[in-house]
Amino acid sequence: MSKLTDTQIRQAKPTAKAYPLADGGGLRLMVKPNGAKTWLFNYYTPYTKKKNNITIGQYPAVTLAQAREKRAEFKALLAKDIDPVQQREQDRQEQADSLGRTFAKMANDWFESRKLQANFSERTAKDTKALFERHIIPLLGNYPINTITPLIAINALKPLERAGKLETVRKIISKLNDVMRYALHRGFIPANTLSEIHKEFDKPVSKGMNTIRPEELAEFLQALYLARNEERFRLNAFYAVMLTLLTASRPSEIAKAKWEDIDLSANLWRYSIQKGNKNLPQGRLHTVTLSAQAVRLLEKIAEYNRVMHLENSPFVFASNEAKSGYISIETIRNAIIKSLGSGRLTTHGIRHLFSTSLNESGAYKAEWIEQALSHKDKNAIRQTYNKAQYLEQRFNMLKEWGDYIEQQAPKPFL
């Protein structure tokens, strides 16, 4: 059988009935009465050996050479007992699935999976979701995940870089890669195309946690007391800042402290820490030794709650306004800002002040200070075997720290 030529195809005229022009090997060009010329591939289906055909496309949009290439592809499939029609349907379905597998959908799947893993606190989950909703989904959410190229992501993030939001860009790139790795490990994409895009952006300059030097403590306390006296914030916010200062507890742990966890007769406060312990549903038990100043402060808070008709609340820093039933971290942070101004000291920066002051004094062992800060030992083996809490040493350390704070504070102390 002679092969078709382009000249023969171009000169083929329509007739009253459709007729084929064969190129051999199952490839035919059907010339229809309306003049349309359609490429078909005729074959026998695997196993059943029934006659079938598959449309390749219209001539001249599909050239003779391209039609022959498709014939070769179909023959290769048949050699593997794969039906070209079924393969085409499968490819179309996969393409449809791919188009529906947007970055937004994959990001949501990753987020729901990540929430079930360890070291993903409620606060971290909230911040992560906000980052996606504010920055990532509006920029890349509608793209099928397998179509996102480095250039698409880079162009989307460059305006943020030009606006000086380098830390935001860093966080976004980190989360983009989390989602891309999630998709890669589940076979939805062949490679993480965004793994190197961080090299296209300036690095943010680490400013560290805003804190003050130990020699600035007196200034801070003067400002805090003045702001309290001028009623720039509620009295329980002042108490919350002072308890943070006296115990070096995390702001979130201060805000949601419960009376049932505090034993004033033993000068102890025991509570469960969820941070970094999501694989432990009950959390990790932490014990805070309470100085005489901290005990007096807690008695003042109890008196305040009675005056404010909050004595039936289980929370130390109770609130009738908050859905949670206790004051927010923002309440504590705002009290500091309204005292000292913004940019000098954060609620978490108080813990840095505590650590710096005690470490620089040289009077206390580092492990006592780390235990007081409820830090987990970075040495996993030592963390497993060393269960010492150094309560006696910490009682003395926090007593001396409380005495020092009282000396630096305006009189009367509370």
CATH architecture of the largest domain: Orthogonal Bundle
Strands, total number: 7
Distance between the termini: 106 Å
**Overall tally of structural domains:** 3
CA-based shape: rod-shaped
CATH C-level category of the largest domain: Mainly Alpha
User: What fold name stands as the CATH topology of the largest domain?
Assistant: hpI Integrase, Chain A
Report the sheet with the most strands, covering strand number, pairing sense and barrel closure.
Answer: 4 strands, antiparallel
Compressed to H and E, one letter per element, the order equals: HEEEEHHHHHHHHHEEEHHHHHH
Mean pLDDT across all residues, rounded? 90
CATH homologous superfamily of the largest domain? Intergrase catalytic core
Which value, in Å, is the CA radius of gyration? 35 Å
pLDDT < 50 stretches: 380-387
Strand order of the largest sheet: 1-2-3-4
Strand content: 5-15%
Explain this structure to me?
- With 414 residues, the protein is α+β, with helices and mostly antiparallel strands.
- The protein folds into three domains: 6-83, Integrase, DNA-binding domain (Double Stranded RNA Binding Domain, 2-Layer Sandwich), CATH 3.30.160.390; 103-200, Tyrosine recombinase, N-terminal domain (DNA polymerase, domain 1); 214-408, Orthogonal Bundle (hpI Integrase, Chain A).
- The chain is 50% helix and 10% strand.
- The protein contains 16 helices and seven strands.
- Strand 5 (262-263) and strand 6 (268-273) form a beta hairpin.
- The radius of gyration is 35 Å and the shape is rod-shaped.
- The protein starts with 5 loop residues before the first helix and ends in a 6-residue tail after the last helix.
